[in-house]
Amino acid sequence: xxxxxxxxxxxxxxxxxxxxxxxxxxxxxxxxxxxxxxxxxxxxxxxxxxxxxxxxxxxxxxxxxxxxxxxxxxxxxxxxxxxxxxxxxxxxxxxxxxxxxxxxxxxxxxxxxxxxxxxxxxxxxxxxxxxxxxxxxxxxxxxxxxxxxxxxxxxxxxxxxxxxxxxxxxxxxxxxxxxxxxxxxxxxxxxxxxxxxxxxxxxxxxxxxxxxxxxxxxxxxxxxxxxxxxxxxxxxxxxxxxxxxxxxxxxxxxxxx
Length: 257
Ligand SMILES: O=C(O)CC1=CCC(=O)O1
Description:
By secondary structure, the chain is of the alpha/beta class. The chain contains 11 helices and 7 strands.
């Protein structure tokens, strides 16, 4: 798998991996890179079939999406990294923290869920997109991604609608099928990475109760709910998200130190 990525920031600094959501690409994180590269190397990449990462035939699994990250880290010689993921990116992060804990330092889960049923809805969406292309998802997605004030703004429609239209139909569908089959809940309690969970108060796709459920299950997790913010809270509230991420990835966690 040739995963498209961008690595920026000071040589030798700790690495933060940024993982995008369904229908977006690595430019989802444009507002985070300048802030995070003050302290970290930022490794942002495109999920399978999104941006410039090619799509293999689906269905995919979270295991495959997680292993794409591990292969990328191996190729770059990164033994352990912080990880922030939004929605599908957060699901990928939970899979990694559960199955490859030695590779994940601290974890930030933004507008995501450990169980986003019903599975039939995701299979139906995959079938729709295979039939009609990702263009069919623009009208239903933008009002979930942003609160009403932003959802219709020309620059937002151009940037985020453009990412969605550019996503490969098979890649998008395969990722829907990964969400349909995901099984993250049973092992959430085994996550050892210090975890920050961020929700958007106005997120209709993964509403705050999904974040509360994750934060209640992951030992020691901290929960923050931002408002106004819909599903792409990092784009709607960049300063608040940057502050939370920097605090989480730099804070001294040892009370006795
Ligand atoms: O597109 C949606 O419905 C919202 C979403 C769910 C998983 C993801 O990455 O985005």
